[in-house]
Write a structure and sequence with these properties.
Blueprint: H1 7-27, H2 38-62
């Protein structure tokens, strides 16, 4: 769990939900996490992290006064 995520981080987490939900739709919402294959778990993690990073990049691009080197 993130400690005190910034507003941009919270928004990025919400943005990552859509691609994760799309993968879960493919897998099946009734599938227990314990029943996922290693590849399915890796795909979920990759999609979540990529969605999060993409959302933060978009935030930085839309807010030029934000220092892109400052971690959120």
């Amino acid at each position: 769990m993130m400690v005190d995520p910034a507003e941009a981080e919270q928004a990025a987490i919400r943005s990552a939900m859509k691609p994760v939900a799309e993968i879960m739709e493919e897998i099946g919402w009734q599938t227990r996490l314990a029943d996922l294959s290693e590849q399915q778990v890796l795909t979920l993690i990759e999609v979540a992290v990529t969605g999060y990073q993409d959302a933060l990049r978009e935030y930085i691009a839309a807010n030029p006064t934000v220092d892109p080197e400052v971690p959120f």
